[in-house]
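Thread title: Can someone regenerate the structure for this chain?

I was given the following input by a collaborator and told the matching structure tokens would be attached. They weren't. Posting the sequence so someone can regenerate them.
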Amino acid sequence: MQLLHRGDTVSPFFCDCIFEIGNFEIGNNFMEVSARCLTNTKFEVETRGHHVFCDQPLDNGGADEGMSPPEFLLASLATCAAYYAAQYLKTRSLPAGELNVRVTAEKGTQPARLAAFEVAVTAPGLDARHEAGVLRAVKACLIHNTLLAKPEIGVTVNGVAASVSDRAA
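Best answer:
Regenerated them for you:
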């Protein structure tokens, strides 16, 4: 990991932000995951050599062998918020051992979506000043900001093109 100057006052890193250096150049803000179909409801998700499984619950036709896609979204928000809160506590030498972040969401319809999220942070023993600091840190989380900003989402479908001989048949 490498620390780069960030310059905002909300970051739990004071003025530094941690960027992972892997297959991507510094300054390139590209991330990627890949989901491979294992069954009609179960998928293996891979990124940077890590693997997790996604499946539907039993009542939705799955085998319940992993979190569902909406649960992964909630997990992303919870772990991002927890990371920012933990970094805030760590930089101030405050204990993070009992830190817990719980995220709930309400489903919406037309179109089907998660319509509202609630993030509840438990960090026992903090005074009002540090509670406010943890709140600022959590609100600076990448996933929180992504959900607030209505990101653009492009979708492409890549099928295998039929060869000339296949089309002639």
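The first helix runs from residue 69 to 91.
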